[in-house]
Amino acid sequence: MAVPAFASVRPSKPDLAVFISGVTSMGLEMLAMRTLAPEFGNHIYTVGGILTVLLAALSLGYWQGGKRAAVATNRQMSWLMLATAAYVGVVVFASDILLTYTSALALPARYASLPAVIVLFGPPTYLLGFISPYAAELSKKEGTGEASGHVYALGTIGSIVGSGATTFVFIPALSIDGIGLLFGLMLVGTALILVVPELPRRPTAASVLVALALVGAAAGGPALFDIDHRGEVVYETQTPYQQLEVIDNGGERTMYLDGAQHSALDLDQPDRHVFTYTKYFHLPMLMSDDIENVDRVLFIGGGGYTGPQDFADQYNATVDVVEIDPSVTDAAEEYFGLEDPEQSADINVHATDGRQFLQRTDETYDVIVLDAYKKEQVPFHLTTVEFMELVSDRLADDGRFHANVISAPNGPAAEFYRAQYRTVQEAFPDAYSFRTSDSNNVQNIEIVATNDDTAFDESELEARNDARAETMGVDLSSAIDNRLDEPNTDDAPVLRDDRGEVDSLLDPMLGQRYVIEESADGEGGTEADTEPAEPTAAIAADSNPGARATLIG
Questions:
Q1: pLDDT tens for residues 22-79?
Q2: Per-residue pLDDT averaged across 182-186, rounded?
Q3: Which of 308, 413, 460, 542 is the most exposed place for a label (fewest CB within 10 A)?
Q4: Is the separation of the CB atoms in 262 and 303 below 8 Å?
Q5: 529 has catalytic annotation
Q6: Domain span(s) for CATH 1.20.1250 in the chain
Q7: Residue of 258, 310, 325, 371 marked active site
């Protein structure tokens, strides 16, 4: 069999253009998800909006490019690459301010991200759509079918490379602006290759100018718009899972994940529960028959490790923590006082998914705390009856389960709470719920379930609190006062693995006001609303990773 000559398999300039356009278009799609998450959350409506807009822009580019392909040249493709790179520079430089303006548009919450996607990522994706029909027209392949198949294959391979490299290499290693700069320079380099060896003056000069503009945008954009009302940014990074920031404001240090508050530390009083709901984590201990018999505790969700450290300090128990993002654990160690997990005798850290951990472990726990829910995106596999039954199996016969649920206590925005409560009831003999705010806004609702029959009444809980407050290190009288009556769950679904109902249940909460109560004293006994001073300001206020809560007056 004859071996093809090297020249016959060497990529042509149009081939390179198609491949790079595939890399960049898919890379921009992945980057859009990370760019929009801090402002709009990463729930299904944000992801679906990105896919819808970018596919529409790409299709429009294909159509327009096909109509003009008869006069296509390598130089025209070079200009398209440069125009795309220039717009990427705009995104790098002004994405924050563009997000602010587009998020202020009066749209239903589920559609709120669409203007931002259109403005930021629609134009560059549209321009890249021209490349494939132009390349097919310039292809040396015989026949329309062979030329189009060749172009489709190269573009798809480029998309695979762009998706994989952005997900597994660029996002863990670079900032969003750094990734945008990389894509922009890649486009500029391709534009130059398309016009070599002639290097005409105008395309060459334009390439140099666009490259300089990209570098300037990456260097100057963040500094120009870095007016952060939240305080001093102590640390920030992109992890494979989210944007992570540590911010100091006055005497409080807060961890933000995708722009949402997750954990907080009082720098002057490290033992204070800044967020009231973390004090409620002790409710399972209040309901345990004997605190001294609680030997093993599991937290699913670590964040700033406020709860796990509190339990390790207060109780003679070994605390396992499942935190899927190792960068979050590293930040907790560096900025929130977490002892090196490899050296700690009390806290063991497992970097994996919570459900996978429970499926694989042989351990039995006395208390399991689930703190991995989000306001606008909930990992549904941690909500279902199958998961709850797994939790029950991993608990001791008299074990206690605690879930930090983000929902409203009643009204339309309470659909998820009622469904979650009913689902918990399917797996556990008894369940109790406690609101953390006197308001009816979306808030942290704590559900505690017992693996045995209990039927606690208010007087029994009060008596236990009086006897155990010193041992637990918290006074839970306010939590007992905030106990909710059993919700009406007649029309609430039981959440199951084979039914994707969680997103529809969260839908009524989109855009709703979300309140995290803050404590004022050492035990978190006085509650304070986190409502912003300016009623028209939108701020992130979530206690869980990857979520966004908007407080709008």
A1: 999 999 999 998 888 878 877 788 889 999 999 999 999 999 999 999 999 999 999 9
A2: 96
A3: 460
A4: yes
A5: no
A6: 13-220
A7: 371
